[in-house]
Amino acid sequence: MPTPSMEDYLERIYKLIEEKGYARVSDIAEALEVHPSSVTKMVQKLDKKDYLVYEKYRGLVLTAKGKKVGKRLVYRHELLEDFLKLIGVDKAYIYDDVEGIEHHLSWDAIDRIGDVVQFFQENDERIQLLKEIQRKNEADEIEEM
Ligand SMILES: [Mn+2]
Q1: Which pLDDT score, from 0 to 100, does residue 54 have?
Q2: Own/partner long-range contacts of 75-81 (Cβ < 8 Å, ≥24 apart)
Q3: CA 87 to ligand 1 centroid distance, Å
Q4: Would you tell me which CATH number, out of the four given (1.10.60.10, 1.10.10.10, 1.10.287.3510, 3.40.50.300), belongs to the domain 75-144?
Q5: Is 19 annotated among the ligand-binding residues?
Q6: What are the residue boundaries of the HTH dtxR-type domain, all occurrences included (predicted)?
Q7: Domains of the chain: which residue ranges?
Q8: Confidence label for 89 from pLDDT (cuts 50, 70 and 90)
């Protein structure tokens, strides 16, 4: 299993390749707000572990294993964003919240959260019921102040 830091890199590399067709060390450094030398180090580590192939002047290519893992990591991030949005978390918190929790949940938890997202998405009435509870709780909070 990749470490949280390796996961961040794989996720970002997968997204860059998906969006631009390639991932350069400088693009990865910028996206993750780290020094290019840290990127080079991590990329070499990921190469050693067969997630990608790195050639200094030709750039990097994900292996089948790297693609599979990267795809799952991007899916996990997007699912967690959908989930937080769905349960009514303020947009301003969503990205940082997901970055904070994504590495610390089991794949079982991810799948169950996927069920919950599906449960709500399949029926708008369920979302309305949740919103009703939230309005009630908000009103109670104001009353308690
Ligand atoms: Mn992420």
Answers
A1: 92
A2: 76/102, 76/110, 77/11, 77/102, 79/110, 79/113, 79/114, 79/117, 80/110, 80/113
A3: 19
A4: 1.10.60.10
A5: no
A6: 1-63
A7: 4-68, 75-144
A8: very high
